[in-house]
């Protein structure tokens, strides 16, 4: 199958951990660029580090990308013209490249032991030289002597001296590196000179793959910036045309530190479990290093594609702010279609409370009751988990415990009279619908204003406290409709007992 000649980008994660905010950002920008350019996104699994790679992380990758709705055009699971797409299945290609580099004198085996390397580094530092590889094994006599001792080689690229290695980064200015700072770097490890069972190291594998897969643009994290001049040397040595490179800005924590594994749980699995919506995560992540425009939190993935522009990306570090992500999610949740949210919430409620509705004793059908609950919770909650938590007041077996605000409201001097009067007047008819219940609440407020000069909250807070154990929450008309007359009255009676004997 021939490869197309349009834009080809890749997302090339190593399956050594779960997908997280940082890795997904790289995936997203490659996705947006590919879609905007009408190009192709290639998924490549970089599992050359066999010790740290694990199948469950590759599964997590498929699961999270699918959940987020980021689809790729070629990859290990769907194939394509440039496969295989898993580095562990491409060893023969790396070995061929390696043999070519050795044959043309661009690479050589190095037999220095770790102790010797450490010693060479110490000497260099003491003499005020950069701690790069000394080049000792460039000498064939030394190599031959050490090989005879039975040592296994690592292969190094012979780095030319005094070269300026420069490229125009797609996101930054021109980046130039003096080749003398690099030292001959390692590209392959092997048992012996046959290269059998050997292993390509990152820079060699990536270069062979990006070339072999026809990649035109490499968009990756800033942490790879120092690898790029090394890869340019490999492109040159192998006679390949390099792609264009763009390095995405660092992501910092709100405290200004580099975001590392130790910074809380930023895995996509965690956010999915917490009930974040995929589009909230994507639109938020799009703001890390790019400015999609005003009201990014309202955009859809399609709008992000339309607006995407590499020239508007920033090289400055961006800050991951979990609170802002939460606000993005709240907004997406509030504007999401109620039926969609209902279907996401239903299984979560069953898992938590063993049921998704409690319409018995109300005037509503189960489905109507459930949609009323979802609509009310959708207004208040920032995540699906919060919807589940908010639903406790209607679905949990026992009535909610009294919060401090509720206790205070029930201890107010007028609370007992207000609740006793509410108990008398709240029958099934007035609580039949949210509208009739709201009208009744207004009537109660007016009654107490005229009767005793009470303010609205002096009437509503004790009632709220009695019904849901809190003075905040959804509107009272919805609360009473969801609870139904029997549960409303039972809870008010319990509150009156509490007032008598707190
Ligand atoms: N596998 C590398 C990583 O996960 C990415 C390599 C690249 O994009 O060049 O960091």
Task: Please provide a written account of the structure.
The protein has helices spanning 21-37, 55-68, 91-103, 114-126, 140-148, 202-212, 228-238, 268-274, 278-286, 301-307, 322-335, 338-353, 366-380, 384-390, 392-395, 404-411, 415-425, 434-452, 456-468, 476-500; strands at 8-11, 40-43, 107-110, 154-157, 164-168, 174-178, 186-189, 199-200, 217-221, 244-248, 251-252, 318-319. The strands form 5 sheets. The protein has a 4-stranded antiparallel beta sheet. A two-stranded parallel sheet has the order 1-2. Strands 5-6 form a two-stranded antiparallel sheet. The protein is elongated. It is α/β, with parallel strands linked by helices and 502 residues long. It starts with 7 loop residues before the first strand and ends with a helix. The protein is 48% helix and 9% strand. The structure holds glutamic acid.
Mean pLDDT: 94
Shape: elongated
Going by CATH, the homologous superfamily of the largest domain would be HUPs
Task: Return the CATH class of the largest domain.
Answer: Alpha Beta
The strand line-up of the biggest sheet is 3-4-7-8
- Uncertain ranges: none
For the secondary structure, the number of strands is: 12
CATH architecture title of the largest domain: 3-Layer(aba) Sandwich
């Amino acid at each position: 199958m021939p490869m197309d000649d349009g834009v080809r980008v890749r997302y090339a994660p190593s399956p050594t951990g779960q997908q997280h905010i940082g890795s997904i950002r790289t995936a997203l920008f490659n996705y947006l660029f590919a879609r905007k350019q009408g190009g192709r996104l290639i998924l490549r699994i970089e599992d050359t580090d066999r010790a740290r790679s694990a199948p469950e992380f590759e599964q997590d990758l498929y699961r999270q990308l699918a959940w987020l709705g980021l689809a790729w055009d070629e990859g290990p699971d769907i194939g394509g013209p440039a496969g295989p797409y898993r580095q562990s299945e491409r060893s023969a290609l790396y070995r061929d490249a390696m043999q070519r580099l050795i044959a043309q004198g661009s690479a050589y085996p190095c037999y220095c032991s770790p102790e010797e390397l450490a010693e060479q580094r110490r000497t260099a530092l003491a003499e005020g030289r950069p701690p790069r590889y000394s080049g000792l094994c460039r000498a064939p006599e030394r190599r031959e002597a050490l090989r005879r001792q039975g040592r296994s080689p690592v292969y190094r690229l012979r780095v030319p001296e005094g070269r300026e290695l420069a490229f125009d980064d797609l996101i930054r200015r021109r980046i130039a590196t003096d080749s003398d700072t690099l030292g001959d770097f390692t590209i392959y490890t092997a048992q012996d000179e046959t290269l059998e069972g050997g292993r390509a190291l990152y820079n060699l594998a990536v270069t062979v793959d990006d070339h072999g897969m026809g990649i035109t643009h490499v968009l990756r994290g800033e942490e790879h910036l120092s690898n790029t001049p090394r890869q340019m040397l490999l492109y040159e040595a192998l006679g390949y045309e390099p792609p264009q490179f763009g390095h995405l800005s660092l992501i910092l924590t709100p405290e200004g530190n580099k975001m590392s594994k130790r910074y809380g749980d930023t895995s996509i699995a965690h956010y999915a479990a917490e009930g974040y919506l995929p589009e909230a995560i994507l639109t938020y992540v799009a703001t890390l290093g790019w400015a999609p425009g005003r009201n990014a939190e309202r955009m859809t993935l399609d709008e992000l594609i339309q607006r995407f522009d590499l020239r508007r990306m920033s090289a400055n570090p961006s800050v991951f702010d979990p609170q802002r992500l939460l606000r993005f999610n709240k907004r997406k949740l509030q504007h999401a279609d109620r039926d969609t949210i209902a279907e996401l919430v239903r299984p979560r409620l069953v898992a938590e409370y063993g049921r998704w509705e409690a319409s018995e004793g109300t005037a509503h059908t189960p489905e109507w009751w459930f949609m009323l609950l979802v609509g009310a919770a959708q207004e208040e909650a920032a995540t699906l988990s919060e919807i589940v938590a908010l639903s406790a007041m209607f679905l949990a077996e026992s009535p909610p415990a009294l919060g401090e605000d509720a206790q205070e409201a029930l201890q107010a001097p007028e609370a007992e009279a207000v609740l006793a009067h509410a108990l008398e007047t709240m029958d099934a008819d007035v609580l039949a619908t949210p509208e009739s219940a709201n009208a009744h609440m207004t009537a109660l407020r007016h009654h107490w204003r005229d009767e005793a000069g009470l303010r609205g909250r002096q009437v509503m807070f004790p009632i709220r406290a009695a019904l849901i154990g809190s003075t905040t929450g959804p509107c009272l008309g919805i609360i009473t409709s969801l609870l139904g007359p029997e549960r409303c009255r039972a809870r008010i009676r319990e509150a009156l007992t509490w007032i008598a004997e707190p």
